[in-house]
Design goal:
disordered N terminus; four-stranded parallel beta sheet; 8 strands
């Protein structure tokens, strides 16, 4: 027997009410949400990829992270639009590295966001500042004088750079190439997010602890992987590897100084050639975002190989995150240094 329309209407109404009731019950008002229970993810601006990576890992689903530096772009030369500066002003939090990107430093000062974390305190400063003198290490057997590598001093590369604003104040800012220092920043990020969103402080802390565990394991891989190598000198495109070299007992010799766009002089290339011959260097390292022409020419002149050593300043491949790129770096180093 086919039901009449008079019966169908009440049944439809009852079904609709039941569905509405179920939907209301599924929204648990006591569930923790970002933004003090607003239900919206926190908006966080990170200045470049390593800080974006850490913030995404610590914040998880509770944050929406945007990088001021587009994927695959060279972060040193970043310029920000007025809209990007406004984005800093309206973001729930900002994570940046002072002294690395002048445009970001200026924008943060102009926007004056309420919650801004400078990663330099936990990352670059850490146990000690990595100054020009520390990486120049004149007293070391691999000193600037011995190699002709006035790497971070006021002469040599500093003059070649022409004072274009990329000298980072004489300090190497690439702290994230030491996984333990990046882990310290993860802890600071969790604290900053907790200030903005205290309801989810425990989640941020737990996520930071998980990332710290992973980065400690990565650090151990580097320590063990580079413990028994035939050589310890790496020739690199630019001197971005001071933290990595200091941590794992290596010596970097840079074609360029801290500015990857510095053009080396013929005298500088001749000096590096002497290092290649004296130290038995088998590989000249280029980078994913820097023109490899000079590195390839230098390698060809000495009959040696080239390989990529990524400073992880930006994410060149969206399918390879920080940890994957670092492990690729480790394998490249082990091959170049003939590690057992």
């Amino acid at each position: 027997m086919i039901p009449s329309r008079a019966l169908i209407a009440p049944l439809s109404l009852a079904a609709a009410l039941a569905l509405s009731s179920c939907a209301a019950d599924s929204a648990d008002p006591s569930a923790a949400t970002a933004g003090g229970g607003s239900g919206e993810a926190l908006t966080v601006q990170a200045s470049f990829y390593p800080l974006q990576y850490v913030t995404e890992r610590v914040g998880g689903d509770l944050v929406q992270v945007e990088s001021l530096t587009p994927a695959g772009a060279e972060p040193h030369d970043l310029e920000l639009s007025p809209a990007a500066v406004d984005g800093l002003r309206t973001a729930d939090a900002v994570v940046y590295l002072s002294g690395f990107q002048p445009a970001v430093d200026d924008a943060v000062a102009q926007a004056a966001p309420e919650h801004a974390l400078d990663a330099a305190h936990a990352g670059v400063e850490g146990e000690e500042a990595h100054s020009a003198e520390e990486h120049g290490a004149a007293e070391d057997s691999h000193s600037a004088e011995a190699h002709g590598a006035d790497a971070h001093g006021e002469e040599g590369h500093a003059e070649e750079a022409g004072g274009d604003g990329h000298d980072h104040g004489g300090e190497d800012p690439h702290f994230w190439l030491d996984p333990e220092r990046l882990a310290a920043v993860a802890t600071e990020v969790s604290h900053e997010l907790a200030e903005v969103d205290p309801d989810n402080a425990a989640t941020y802390e737990s996520n930071a602890e998980q990332l710290t565990t992973e980065l400690a394991a990565l650090d151990e891989e580097f320590t063990e992987g580079l413990a028994t190598c035939q050589r310890d000198t790496i020739v690199v495109s630019h001197e971005a590897y001071g933290f990595l070299a200091d941590k794992y007992g290596l010596e970097q010799v840079g074609i360029a100084g801290l500015d990857p766009e510095t053009e080396p002089s013929p005298a500088r290339l001749a000096e590096i050639g002497e290092v290649v011959e004296a130290e038995g260097v088998t590989t000249v390292f280029s980078e994913s975002l820097v023109n490899p022409k000079v590195a390839e020419t230098l390698a060809a002149e000495h009959g040696i190989e080239t390989a990529v050593l990524d400073p992880v300043e930006a994410q060149a491949d969206e399918n390879a995150d920080y940890q994957q790129v670092m492990r690729d770096n480790l394998e490249a180093l082990r091959t170049a240094l003939d590690c057992a």
